[in-house]
Specification:
This protein is mostly helical. The chain is built from six helices and no strands. The N and C termini lie far apart (94 Å).
């Protein structure tokens, strides 16, 4: 009888230990996954703000820079792709669309538009929008980095033993959607139309 109680006690202790490990692992994984979701929400907020500001800046200069319709079209198409991806909720699609828009902005250098077109330097609305977009780009850069860090932390924790067993048991999937640095992505996109206008005013630099 005593031996049976000892065995039962050992079994109970083992179950308590295993249960404690499982509960701790579950709580840790849940917390880190929620952190990933929160960081992603910050990314989405900044992506949406950038998407809202870009057409405002385009609208402020489009009537003046009538020869740049092809440039504005490229920006509009890339922005539309990002908006569709945001609506889909698919993180990989959002990241791909963000990379496309960022690449377009970098290629067109759309933020420093007043350097290429000095006649816009007196336009307070253009200057304000440039500042707002530049600030949003900086916040977006930070939110991307924070998101990537949280994903790495979550995946590292998920892959450790015994948490990997708990992750498989409770459906904590690995997160593979993260931002990868592209060539030239170390700087915030410079939104600058650096083509000289067809009929540039005297003194306007042609590039």
């Amino acid at each position: 009888m005593t031996k049976g109680l000892i065995i039962l006690g050992v079994v109970v202790v083992i179950l308590l230990i295993v249960g404690g490990i499982c509960a701790s692992s579950y709580n840790t994984l849940y917390s880190k996954r929620e952190t990933v979701n929160a960081k992603w929400a910050d990314v989405e907020t900044n992506l949406q703000r950038r998407a809202d500001l870009i057409p405002q800046l385009v609208g402020a200069v489009q009537g003046i820079l009538t020869q740049e319709q092809e440039v504005f079209g490229a920006i509009a198409n890339a922005r539309a792709g990002l908006m569709n991806a945001l609506k889909s909720g698919n993180r990989s699609e959002v990241i791909d669309a963000d990379n496309q828009l960022t690449s377009t902005l970098q290629r067109l250098q759309f933020l420093n538009i007043t350097e290429a077109y000095p006649q816009l330097k007196s336009n307070e609305n253009v200057l304000r929008l440039q500042d707002e977009i530049a600030g949003t780009e900086n916040r977006l850069k930070v939110s991307r980095q924070d998101y990537n860090t949280s994903v790495q932390d979550y995946n590292t924790t998920r892959g450790s033993f015994p948490r990997v067993l708990v992750a498989s048991l409770f459906g904590f999937e690995r997160e593979d959607a993260y931002f990868k640095a592209a060539a030239g992505a170390t700087e915030a996109p410079k939104v600058e139309l650096n083509k000289a206008p067809a009929t540039a005013p005297a003194g306007a630099p042609a590039r």
